[in-house]
Design goal:
This protein is mainly β and 277 residues long. The chain has helices at residues 39-43, 201-210, 218-221, 266-276, and strands spanning 30-35, 47-52, 64-73, 91-94, 105-108, 112-119, 125-129, 135-139, 142-143, 154-157, 161-168, 173-179, 258-264. Helices cover 11% and strands 27% of the residues. Bound molecules: copper (II) ion. Copper (II) ion (CU) is lined by residues 123, 125, 179, 181, 184, 257.
């Protein structure tokens, strides 16, 4: 009980700068996670994965094993600290990064892949993978029996839940993985932006970023939906081995809670791994 971490119930709180060593015997295995038990600290992002592998590996064994924590934040213009009391979130992240800054997951065609998805935020997220069907093989409570696996390409990961998905990477491609909630596929949304405010700060801010919608072109100001659906390719800002060989302008398609699984032919896979070394 004193290792369970509920302050007041099982143990005393830790003072600033204090420490406590947790020690316990593992009786279970699966996709577990640890986190602060104070809401504000949780909303500031104090959470991590605790992966416990079984003594006998699960079958079928996987070649790749990835972990993603989904989180949301409200970071309004000119702020660097998230507002932890807010209920409307404008930054949605995988492992603390929003697309196109998320790092693509690299897979060789034919490999079996596991992705562990964990959600400890304020919203439920229907996480969707393009290009390959998967089965849900585990939850926060452990392994799901094989007889209950069924094909899916979207899985709802509720608050406080973990979902392990697995698939055979049959189809070559750069396959987006994203939350399917439309607003979670955007970023930087603030209520003063959009067609309701045909001129002003928000438009200026976006138009100067890349010059897609210049202030001096009245016709372009009238684009419906602007600037919610933005197209802002900035490939050169995200050059890293994992983005090598992506189609030109790829970063324009990536924002919000978006990342990708790159199922690569062996030659390109080896080339990219060589660049990572
Ligand atoms: Cu979502």
């Amino acid at each position: 009980m004193e290792m369970e971490g509920s302050v007041g119930l099982g143990q005393d709180p830790l003072p600033p700068g204090g420490s406590y060593t947790y020690e316990f015997t593992l009786k279970q295995h699966g996709t577990l996670f640890y986190h602060s038990h104070f809401s504000m600290q949780e909303m500031m992002g104090l959470i991590g994965l605790l992966i416990v592998h079984p003594q006998t590996p699960y079958t079928p064994q996987v070649d790749r094993d990835f972990g993603l924590i989904v989180q949301e934040w409200q970071i309004l213009p000119n702020n660097t600290v998230p507002n932890t009391m807010a209920m409307e979130f404008n930054w949605l992240t995988f492992n603390g990064k929003a697309g196109p800054a998320t790092t693509p997951m690299l897979v060789k065609q034919g490999e079996r892949v596991r992705i562990r998805l964990v959600n400890l935020g304020m919203d439920h997220h229907p996480l969707h993978l393009h290009g390959n069907q998967f089965v849900v093989t585990g939850t926060e409570g452990g392994r799901v029996p094989e007889g209950q696996w069924h094909p899916q390409n979207t899985v709802l990961v509720g608050v406080g839940q973990a979902r392990n998905i697995e698939f055979d990477a049959k189809h070559i491609g750069d396959w987006m993985m994203h939350c399917h909630m439309p607003h979670h596929m955007m970023n930087q949304m603030v209520s003063m932006a959009g067609p309701m405010t045909p001129s002003g700060h928000a438009q200026m801010m976006n138009s100067t970023t890349i010059g897609l919608y210049p202030m001096d072109d009245p016709a372009k100001k009238a684009i419906k939906g602007y600037p919610q659906d933005m197209w802002m390719p900035m490939d050169e800002m995200f050059v890293k081995p994992e983005t090598f060989g992506l189609r030109k302008g790829w970063s324009g398609a990536m924002m919000g809670m978006m990342t990708m699984v790159r199922v690569l032919p062996p030659g390109l896979y080896d080339e990219i791994q060589g660049r990572r070394a």
